[in-house]
């Protein structure tokens, strides 16, 4: 519940606790919304035997097959330290394979295996359907505005503009 929907007594209590209760209320709504969407996505993806991180790897490879492990790590929603273990588990499961880079013996190129390609294809409709349910009621302009606002927060926190 944002600060405008709260009872006056709740807003008064928040005003005593926080210097700027509207900012705190906005932050809480952002966190609540993210948590709900992430939880629902995790449930939808887990029905296909995948975690969100594994789905993210499969989706990235679906779009950019043959990336290096380092390139993949820069695109994922997990920390770089988790990438090695994540890729190892996915390789053991037959979802991906690491192949030596013919031009750089220090690097591996990551490829989808047929099972990984199929798992991605089976999970994608559930993933996309949930995102459509969450965001589909918004106009394209509203989604663009939301992305711009979220990028503004990110840029402020990072201190560097994003293209």
- Shape designation: globular
Number of continuous helical runs? 7
**What is the radius of gyration?**
20 Å
Low-confidence runs: none
Helix content: 55-70%
H-E string: HHHEHHEEHH
Please tally the β strands and state the result: 3
Give the rounded overall mean pLDDT. 87
Distance between the termini: 33 Å
Structural class: mainly alpha
Q: Biggest sheet: strands, sense, closure?
A: 3 strands, antiparallel
- Approximate strand percentage: 5-15%
Spatial strand arrangement across the major sheet: 1-3-2
Structure write-up:
This protein is mainly alpha-helical and 163 residues long. The chain contains seven helices and three strands. The chain has helices at residues 8-17, 21-46, 52-63, 69-75, 80-92, 114-135, 140-158; strands at 67-68, 96-101, 104-112. Strands 1-3-2 form a three-stranded antiparallel beta sheet. A hairpin with a 2-residue loop joins strand 2 (96-101) and strand 3. The longest helix has 26 residues, at 21-46. It starts with 7 loop residues before the first helix and ends in a 5-residue tail after the last helix. The relative contact order is 0.10. The mean pLDDT is 87.
